[in-house]
Known about the structure:
- The chain has one domain (16-278).
- It is 26% helix and 13% strand.
- The protein is built from nine helices and nine strands.
- It has helices at 45-53, 135-138, 142-147, 152-160, 199-205, 210-221, 232-244, 248-259, 273-276, and strands at 31-33, 60-63, 65-67, 74-77, 80-85, 88-95, 99-102, 110-113, 188-189.
- The strands form three sheets. Strands 2, 4, 5, 6 and 9 form a five-stranded antiparallel beta sheet that branches. Strands 1-3 form a two-stranded antiparallel ribbon. Strands 7-8 form a two-stranded antiparallel sheet.
- Helix 6 (210-221) packs across helix 7 (232-244).
- The longest helix has 13 residues, at 232-244.
- It holds the Pfam family DUF7531.
Amino acid sequence: MDVDCEDCAGCCVDWRPVSPAPSDHERRGPRRPLDDVYNLVPLTRDEVVGFVRAGFGDVLVPRMWEVDDADTPSVEVDGVSVAAIAGRPAFFVGLRKPSKPVSPFGVGRTWLDACVFLDPETLQCRIHEDDLYPDECREYPGHNLALGRETECERVESTFGGDRLLDDETPELRGLLLGPHAVGSKVFAYPDREALSGTVERMRRGDLTDADRAAFVGAAAGSRPGSTEVDETRAEAVRETVLDADSWAGEVVGAWTELAGDVGDDAADAPDGRTVEVARGAPETPGWDDLH
């Protein structure tokens, strides 16, 4: 894909607070995310396991969907109809997005929710060259093009001008999993809906506990591709590993959460990424000068 990402990160940042025309493209149709996280990247089962093994289980977060269509499979959790697979709550796992002082599209430093691995100064991914870099990110916006859906690049172009999507030819893809192929590989089935009591409201508030996140990550890691079954022994082992995780990225989430003003507020006086992230062990990013 040929895209211009410099000073953008539109796919990594929730830029709705600085947009004159906020998008609700993720909240259309019969399944609406319970959370309000923008462009949450779905990880495959193998990617979830990879992050856990690398010690980053503390930056993984689940998503479930509310259903208001009687024809859409669902189950009730806390009195809310949530999307289901074979009678079990459906979910996927993504990366946490704390509020950071970022300046996409030249809007000036603003507190906006951004991927935990995004360098707030260069707007580059700290794991871009790493084996952990998710396929969904690596191939973006290829999946959108393959499905005939508007890309974030095009949304940025229409709102802020400029050219971001420089090539609209669909590349060869390996991470696009749809329908039955996604079950157990990218979309998972939580094995015990009774254990999710209280989770719906916490997910809506963006206030999931460490135990909440660990339970979902364990269920994802214990899933079998093509199946709704979960290996409970594996799930429990992963859950414990996630609860014990103490990565630099997890520390960054906590640090920015304490420092952040309200989303959309001016962040001109906020500390920089080196002070908060690199000081805690985050790898530096190369900048753009040598990439042109």
